[in-house]
Structures are given as C-alpha cells and as structure tokens.
Structures
1.
Amino acid sequence: DTAVSQTPKYLVTQMGNDKSIKCEQNLGHDTMYWYKQDSKKFLKIMFSYNNKELIINETVPNRFSPKSPDKAHLNLHINSLELGDSAVYFCASSQGYGGGYFGPGTRLLVL
Amino acid sequence: GNSVTQMEGPVTLSEEAFLTINCTYTATGYPSLFWYVQYPGEGLQLLLKATKADDKGSNKGFEATYRKETTSFHLEKGSVQVSDSAVYFCALSERGGSNYKLTFGKGTLLTVNP
C-alpha cells in the first residue's frame, strides 16, 4: 500500500494553462507539504499544512494555491503556468520533526 | 536563516570502497538532522535521522552521527555497492510557525562502478 501518492506522475502543458496536482497520504499524519525540486536537484519547501490549516507559505507566487480538503489530502493548483514552473513537485507528510515520507513526484514540463 | 552545506559531487567510487559525504549545518537551536536518498527517476526516501546531539542514525549499512560541536552530520558507509548509486541529500528540520519544515543541502550524486 502506497504511503504517499501523487497524480499525475508526468504533466506536459503549454504556457498560460492552469493545472492541478493531487496528493494523498494513508499514514494518518497531521502534516503535509509541497516541495519543489528544480533542474539542478535543489529542493525547497513551498507549503505546509497541519490538519487542513496552512502553516507555512514560503514566498511562493500566488499563482500557486494549495488546498487541503481533509488531513489526508493536499492538492496544488497552478494558474497561468510559466516556463520557470517546470520542475518536479513532491508531496510529503510527517508527524513531527519535519522528516517524513515523500511521494514519487510529479514531473511538470511547461512548453 | 538555517542552512545545510554538503560536499559537491559528483562522487565516483568503485564497489566495496569506503564512502564519506560531508554535511555541515547552520541553525539556531537544536534541529533534527536527516539523510535522504533519491534513486534515478524516483522520489526521496528517508535513509536515516538523528534528533539530538551524539545520536547516531543508521540504516542499510549507512551511518551518520549528530556532532553539535562541529555542526556536522557526515554520511558514511564501509563498503558501497552499485545499487547505492543515487543522489544523497542532507537536511535539517526547523520550526516554521507551529510546523516543522525541511531545509535541504544541494545533494551529492554518487556513482558506484562495478
């Protein structure tokens, strides 16, 4: 049984489009995250939710809007996609300490 | 702010060689420290962690000791295998509001040749 799952795994789209990435965890964790990994493999936190409440928003453009319908799900919606949004987006969940389980990633390519 | 510095790669070793990947950190307070591994085309897997000074994390033959006096958390393995080829990330956990968040190093690519 997959601990943290994301869909889709690959996303290829045109500049200016709007897209969503979904994430689900079945670990019963209270905290979920979105991280972005750029082309040089550098990882940076974007958002953190605790039991459906937004806790961390790391100066991410407001074209990115996370939504947590319940504590097991954290989705990421991106408006007006730009070339620079091309990256791998990882969902993660944890219970304290910040370290935790990562999803397989969504590889977004904006053309 | 807090930061993590790890040795730049790529690191190329022969099978059964000894591995060290250096990691140092800057932090206020006492963060928890982690090593993550990313195999090609996959997500991140937690390899090991240490939550306080002098703790040693270990898993799959890898070890790292939380050294507060040198603010370091170096990753070691006595005998690497081809299957250990991956990118390794050192990270620390710090509070962001009422939550914790991970700050990562830039990653070190390890290639092990047969």
2.
Amino acid sequence: EVQLVESGGGLVQPGGSLRLSCAASGFSFSSYWMSWVRQAPGKGLEWVANIKRDGSEIHYVDSVKGRFTISRDNANNSLYLQMNSLRAEDTAVFYCAREGTNRAGFDTWGQGTLVTVSS
Amino acid sequence: QSVLTQPPSASGTPGQGVTISCSGSSSNIGSNYVYWYQQLPGTAPKLLIYRNNQRPSGVPDRFSGSKSGTSASLAISGLRSEDEADYYCAAWDNSLSNWVFGGGTKLTVL
C-alpha cells in the first residue's frame, strides 16, 4: 500500500525551529518529486516547497524562502522540512504529498501533522 | 489572496448538477495542466481530476473537468450527500516556479 506518514509537528514559540519528517512506503520513493503543502486552520491549501527525485532541484513559495529547507533521504525513503524562524502565520497542518509521474498531480497525501507557533 | 480564483461556495440538491469554476492566468492555467482536489471534512485532500480532465481510478464518472484558455471547471453530476466537501483547483505557475492553488469552494448538498 502506498503510504505517507508525517511526524514532527507540535507547539513552538515564535522564532523557534521544528523539523518535519515524512516516511514513505509502498512505492519507489526515489522515482518521485515530493512536496510539502500546508493548511492554516479554517483556510485553504498552500503549497510550500518541492524537491526533485534526486534532490537536485528545489522550489519554495516566497513566504518561506530563507527560513524553510526541504530535503530528502532516498536511502531511507524519507522527506524532511526544516523550519526556522517560525512565525504565528506558519501555524498550519503540514501535508507531505507525492507528485505523480507524467504530470499526474499530487496523487498521494499523508494524514498531516499540526504545527502551532505560539507563545 | 490566491493566485487561482474560485467561488467560495456552491450548492445543489441531491441528483442535481453543479459546476465550480477556477480562473487563472497565462502563466498557470493558460500554459499548464489543471488539477482538482476534494477535501472531506477533517481529512487530507484527495486527487479528483488530473491533467485537466482525467480521473484517477476509483473516482466516479460523475466528476469531470475541463479547461479553456486561462479558466477551468469541475462539474459534478447527480449530486450525493457524500460530495459535500471543499474543492480546490491547482496548477503549476511558470512565472513563480510554484504550484498554486485556488482558495477553495465549499460545496453544500442541500
């Protein structure tokens, strides 16, 4: 079964850091682009970042550039999001999502992990 | 303010049809595929339509997508109570080098 499981969310103070992880199983992880997508409470979806199959190409939404770093470990089938200088507006559920081959969209999503930035 | 524009709400009665629009620009919808996602309350989003009008296996043919120029639409026929959810359109934006989403449309089945 194709599965993505996020972890690492929690409560952090403004200015703090957090590292999210996404464990992939049931598919050849190294064959897929991967993304992080977030959803603030009661709000819509916002794409955060993505990373190419081998990690050689990365893109970020402007609001997190310089603060967040996406990375992957293909040997361990894992995706990461290092989040620094966190702000209240970063409070959201963060989803790990697989970008399907042949432009198939985000065809697999994790259950999400909640990040709360508050003092 | 989302890059792609969707109506915040839509509604219909069981058995009816409804259409949700998504408006973008030449840098996103105008030059790339459109995707639609369904998010049931309290759950993760699910891919509903890919490459403008393709349905993943398991998605009923009551759901259909179309695209024309810089706009796209999701049509749902034969509404059922379980279709009550939030629907999001998405596309890659060449100018931003980002995926962009619409603000979402909350569908109510009356």
